[in-house]
Amino acid sequence: xxxxxxxxxxxxxxxxxxxxxxxxxxxxxxxxxxxxxxxxxxxxxxxxxxxxxxxxxxxxxxxxxxxxxxxxxxxxxxxxxxxxxxxxxxxxxxxxxxxxxxxxxxxxxxxxxxxxxxxxxxxxxxxxxxxxxxxxxxxxxxxxxxxxxxxxxxxxxxxxxxxxxxxxxxxxxxxxxxxxxxxxxxxxxxxxxxxxxxxxxxxxxxxxxxxxxxxxxxxxxx
Length: 222
Description:
It comes from Buttiauxella noackiae ATCC 51607. Its EC number is 2.1.1.-. Pfam families: Methyltransf_11. It is an enzyme of class 2 (transferase). The chain is an alpha/beta fold. It has helices at residues 3-13, 24-40, 62-68, 80-93, 130-142, 161-164, 187-196, and strands spanning 50-54, 72-77, 98-101, 115-120, 143-155, 167-168, 173-176, 179-183, 199-207, 213-221. A hairpin with a 5-residue loop joins β9 and β10. The chain is globular.
């Protein structure tokens, strides 16, 4: 059982609203502010466009937001429990969505050039090393030529002493139990990493938080 499957089983059993647990309300509000800004800047296409969330969890974040506004929503997550939970959630809310269990580094079940918007549901910072290149290559393959990709990710050094002592600044890894757990690159290196994989960055939004910063990077395929 992967760690995400185990965590989603616990979250669902304990009546949590989403992956963020007690932080869901804050995370949901912050996401809404960012998505509204992208709408105002005309970065997002009009409702009715196809939308894929990577690391969709139980569908409570960007998938639900976009479905409520009339987008054609799909989501993928490595946890089967999260996927079943997302289906149940959308059914209860009367929303339409397609949710599939899968690995964001290998999405061969999805056809190339299929989506107007691909949104990283804060899973990119969970990827380590080569996984990141593979994920960006899949995003590049799946997004339509005139589409938009949005990377939503932790960035920069941790700010609290407890996490800072577990930060490998040479590799930009936040460590847990002696293993890389999250990747927290500086914003400039993040943008370079994305650009190298065939994207042009059109807008970057940075949220400053007490624990670590969070970047939303919007890009188009070259």
